[in-house]
Amino acid sequence: MRKVNMHEAKTHLSRLVREAVAGDPFVIARAGKPLVRVIAVETPRYGSRRTGFLKGRIAVPDDFDTMGASEIEAAFNGER
Fold first, then answer.
1. What proportion of the chain, given as a percentage, has pLDDT over 70?
2. Which domain does 18 fall in, by range?
3. In sequence order, what E strands does the chain have?
């Protein structure tokens, strides 16, 4: 693993991070003494969205937008 001194790391941070993400990790050192290792963070893959995977398995009633409207209205009016 390549060693980069602190000054070079500050000067070329963007390039160094880009290289680390591409698979070339490095160590930042001060006075030749290794301090930190910089490696890419592996982001978890949650899988791709599967649009339509429940098609045909569920049914939405035609009156879905108005279901329970009278009961809700009564509750807001204090009639319940």
1. 95
2. 2-38
3. 2-5, 26-30, 33-38
